[in-house]
Amino acid sequence: MSIEPLTDLSRLCIHTITTKPWGIEDAARHYSSAGVKGITVWRDALDGRNIRQTGEMLRNSGLSVVSLARGGFFPNTDAVKRQAALDDNRKAIDEAYELGTDKIVLVCGADPGLTLEESRKHIYEGISAIIPEATAAGVKLAIEPLHPMYADTRSAINTLSQANDMAEKLDSRAVGVAVDVYHLWWDPDLEKEIARCGRNNNLLAFHVCDWKSPTVDMLNDRGLMGEGCIPVKQIRGLVEASGFSGYNEVEIFSSIYWKTDQKEYLEKIVNAYLNHT
Ligand code: ZN
Q: What is the CA(275)–ligand 1 centre distance, in A?
């Protein structure tokens, strides 16, 4: 399969968490002047702000608000906390609507006090419960499978097959899946499962970064594309072959890069995007 190189930034989106030291205004200004076209907003970046005005500020900076990160964390042994999670997800839907984006990324959650099957049942019930609000707000919920190393507390959905199963079982136009190379690059069924979500119009988002070898921290040691062992370009090819034409979203948690000069880091991101994505 030949994969067209990325020759411009028209489909480059960056997650605010990637440049965490910047407030959202600085992120908007710098992304925009670097030629970035999309932004995915993490909810912490909206703390204490007028969300509607923030959305306008982003659009006025020439950025498309690609999605809000994140909802989810449905499973809990404690019914009160389960209800609190539903309330928080409904709040996220309101925030997405105010911000003017049509997508929320779901990190579905897991509770180590439950079996993975029980956690998945809570996830199914949780997403089912918020579909009416998501539909009313015109917001789609993207189930993001997480690498199995996070199956204890972050997500009981660990393969794209499981995410596809869940999305198909929920059978709602408000629900689809997100493919993140960091979580899925190892999966022998990846090609088949990407084709499957494409076929069902369920592929809502595509996240990129790299898996550094060795990885020294389970959460905050992601690499720039090209720095690790993930065949990012090949996976982008699969995603595009499945019919996806949305943004390539750079999502990097890195306690190393967060300590560096963020403007120089942004240049590195753009470079890694054009040469290794
Ligand atoms: Zn992701």
A: 20
Report how far ligand 1's centroid is from the alpha carbon of 3 (Å).
Answer: 22
Cβ-based neighbours of 77, under 8 Å, separated by 6 or more: 111, 113, 114
pLDDT tens for residues 180-237?
Answer: 999 999 999 999 999 999 999 999 999 999 999 999 999 999 999 999 999 999 999 9
Residue 100 CA to ligand 1 centre (angstroms): 20
251 CA distance to ligand 1 middle (Å):
6
How many helices (H) and strands (E) are present in the chain, helices listed first? Answer: 9, 10
Q: How far is the CA of 180 from the centre of ligand 1 (A)?
A: 5
d(CA 20, CA 241): 32
Burial 56-90, CB ≥16 within 10 A → b, else e: ebbeebebebbbbbbbbbbbbeeeeebeebbeebb
pLDDT tens digits, residue range 45-84?
999 999 999 999 999 999 999 999 999 999 999 999 999 9
pTM of the model: 0.98
Burial zone of 9 (CB within 10 Å; 0-12 exposed, 13-18 middle, 19+ buried): middle
CA of 263 to the centre of ligand 1 (A): 22
For residue 8, report the distance from its CA to the centre of ligand 1, in Å: 22
Name the one residue in this structure whose structure tokens are 């009160």. 80
Cα(250) to centroid(ligand 1), Å: 9
Dihedral Cα 266, 246, 60, 31, nearest 10 deg: 0
Instruction: Render the burial of 94-128: b for 16+ CB within 10 Å, e for the rest.
Output: ebbbbbbbbbbbbbbbbbeebebeebbebbbebbe
One-letter amino acid identity for 135? T
